[in-house]
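Lecture 7 notes: from sequence to structure.

We start with a single chain of 143 residues. Read the sequence below before looking at the structure.
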Amino acid sequence: MGMNVPSGGGSGEPEVMVDINTTPLIDVMLVLLIMLIITIPIQMHAVKMNLPVGNPPPPAVQPQVVQIDIDFDGTMTWNGTPIPDKATLESKLAQVAAEPVQDEIHLRPNKLVPYKDVAAVMAAAQRVGATKIGLIGNEQYMQ
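Now the structure, written as tokens:
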């Protein structure tokens, strides 16, 4: 068994405790935290949308599919026929955009083609007003 023996002279006074008592600080912080939580209003994020009821009717005319392939060196083909320059591409895209029911444009770039070539085709389609464009063949980029 051990016994606590005070050190120093026998004056009988207890030693001064130099540690700070953090219990009141923690109590005050908890009270402030609870008050903050109670006073914050509950935010309701709601977006009102008018959604259609039922299934939409199928389109009267099924759109044609136009496939644009971009090879690794930047050469482009339109449904298998080579496109010599960007002006020809823009004229073909303008024809697609002018139709009442636009054809779907499937853009299939090669894995090694620079992004600027793909972005140029997408920008040209946006400039002339072609809205139905999509990238296909993305599974070649999966690791």
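The two ends are 68 Å apart (CA to CA). Keep this in mind for problem set 3.
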